[in-house]
Amino acid sequence: MNPVALDKQTDDWFWRRERADRLSVIIDAADFFKAAKDAMLQARHSILLIGWDFDARIELEPEGKTLDGPNPVGPFLTWLGKRRPELDIRILKWDTGMMYSIGRGETPLTLLRWKLSGPVQMRLDGVHPPLSTHHMKLLVIDEALAFCGGIDMTTGRWDTRDHAEASPGRLSPRKAPLGPWHDATTCVTGPAAKALSDLARSRWAHATGKMLGPFAGDFDIWPSDVTVDFENIDVSICRTVPEHLERPQVTEIERATLATIATARHRLYIESQYFASRRIAEAIAERLAEPDGPEILVVNPDTADGWLEAEFMDSSRIRMMQIVRQADHNDRFRLVYPVNAAGTPIYVHAKIMIADDCLLKIGSANLNNRSMGYDSECDLVIESENDPEVARRIAHIRDDLLAEHLDLSEDAVRDALADGGSMIALVDRVSATNGRRLVALPMRELTPDEEMLAESNLADPLRPGRLKRTFRKLLG
Questions:
Q1: Which terminus of the chain is more solvent-facing, meaning fewer CB atoms within 10 Å of its CB: N or C?
Q2: 115-129 average pLDDT score
């Protein structure tokens, strides 16, 4: 199999390429929350958390505490800061996300206590275009270790990989049951972690006007339960940053995504919260129109989270599926959603792209316009570079994800895909049975109102300038 190779002669699809001493992919927030708590307990100098949302009430180990300190993340950070006063602990949260917090019933008392006298400094980041969000999710510890992916430390994210029905640990802070949730992030050390620290500190500077000095971090930190997937590997860091004030537009993630679609040869496996970008749908359609193009599997949630979001994003998804299916003459595309053993849809929040056995992209960016140009995002990309061991590990991550969704062993998935076997044939075969599986999203015709929403891009703008032009057009 020839490897995917993004263009090394240009640097317009990544911000920095740095070496990772170790890199692991962490699937689902049960493992991430525990690993984050473990790593923060090892901190000596600093903890810097950058997120779309943050809820101080969530428990890091809701099924039973195994690590020191309080279980809710807010009291844990307070306890850690008082226990180690030399620690610099900071949280940067998207400013409009505070409305979500209040709507959930989250009390601002913890945040107020921190602001008045607590050991944690928390700021709200409002430096963005109108309706834009700060969507990247970073946790950097001592500049020695960083988590980068799609998981926020907030309500509704925690789940285990079995996504069991009525899981006792999957509760809101008010102890209301929550639905199953699938997510992913990474854990990185070495120069790549230092680069992510630089990005996090620049975000703090843009939001607050204060540039933080480097935090010393020349010793080893690694969560004890996290298995290392890759060692001594180059990592490309890609960003989306919307044009705002004096800050230029950055669309590295869009270019990396389009290049990955263009160069995949046999298989393209994707997990995303949305499928709403016309540019991406047209790029996929172009590949499907080729007589020997790759097969493409997209794993989405069955519907967007929330009524208003579903009205816009589900309509856009149907429109993108129409574009893709018109080109899919050889039946090489599926858009599916996972269900657990009880048949309950599992909400997909992970943002993953795996091309052949050769490239892995994972981070905070979805396949929608916002992630390509209107919100702040951060993705990591690793490539096999003709290294068979790296290729084996990339294939392992894809096969492991398929095994989770299809309730199969990883060996069974690997055997099914051996010698050019088809992901789509495997999904179709397993999905014909009951139980845990991937279900094809049904097609339907859009109503005139839905067609208007799908084409408007009001909820999913591509660039700040284009949204302004759209509003001017609507207002006459």
A1: C
A2: 86
